[in-house]
Design goal:
Blueprint: E1 5-8, H1 12-20, E2 28-32, E3 46-49, H2 57-67, E4 76-79, H3 85-90, H4 92-95, H5 108-113, H6 115-124, E5 132-134, H7 138-145, E6 152-156, H8 165-170, E7 177-179, H9 182-192, E8 199-203, E9 212-219, E10 225-237, E11 243-249, H10 253-265, E12 270-278, E13 285-291, H11 308-316, E14 331-334, H12 336-348, H13 354-360, E15 366-368, H14 376-395
Length: 396
Amino acid sequence: MKNPVISLGLSTPGIFIMRHFPKSGIAAYGLDSGPGEIGFHSRFGVKNICPDPEINGREFFEYLLNFRKQFSVKPVLIPSSDKFVLPLNDYAEELKGHYLFTMPEGGLLRKLTSKRYSYELAVEHGFPAPKTCFVRNGDDLQNFVKDVEFPCILKPEFPESWRSGFLEEYCSGEKVIIVNSAEEIFEKYETISKYDDRVIVQEIIPGEDSNLHYFVSYMDRNGACLGSFTGIKERIAPVHFGSASYVNLVYDEKLKDISVKWLKDMKFWGLSGIEVKKDERDGIYKLIEVNPRFGLWDETGSKFGIDVAMMCYKELTGEQQEPVENKNINMRWISLHRDIRSSVEYVQKDLIPLSDIIRSYFRWPIYVGDMRWNDPKLVIHLIKGLFRGIKRRLSK
């Protein structure tokens, strides 16, 4: 019997895992704590609601132990959402007797999930990063504002810190807060620190969203890069500080070289994505964030021979593999329900002409990551959500 695969997360990446692995005769399951996640509307895979690991990691761990009882062989765990990375890291020793999953040593997953530690690891190993301040008190802010250009952003060390309660409302659900002056930094910090004192202030790297680049890879346990590819985030949702909605996949040797070196230096192994932005002032790629998991458009590699999810599965189940490289990539990836919303915003703000957006939909080949003819229930759900979003925007 083949080891089943379990996607920890049921957003767009999790849907791919559930529809992709059964083509190879591998049973696919999905777990998520949010019943509203779009994966629950897909016809693919067996879905279950689990405890929220951000609220109670121990309860989620115990759920996994109980969930394991239905399988005669060890399932393969592939996290496809940030909130499932930390419990894997924290309960790795107890879980490894029951599941197969990648796990770099030294608590590296926890460090990379933290904005603070991922920045410090970048500095330690010479990976370029924007000017950043990890605020401990007012003196730290005073020193930072002396040598930085505005606007800047305030963001949490751990994203989940601002996803509930007062801070979610204060930040209007956004991932970061933009500040345009030193006075505004102090004002915002004073309010936020009462609820979460792990605040990060960082310079905004100037330039268009199309300066955002992303490196996807699978590194094996011996430090070899089995497969990788790169892409340019031509549009993101929401604009400027969101995740990809339209990506142009191109080969970028420079980004590959610096990313692979950093991952090797850290002794990282597993699935990951590294987001950078090209600084127009000096032409250098600078770190935005690291995602030590299966990401939003990582699935696209399966169309040109770099199937990183399957590489992960095969290594964990003991299958020998050789590294794969493809320098002749010519493909676009799009999430239709996300990109239509983001395109409205780009046009409203005069950032991208509507004609350019329309032309981008005809740049073949183009890979659609969400709406599929063979998953009608999901398509209907996404279309309904899209119209609700447009209606809210018009009402505002």
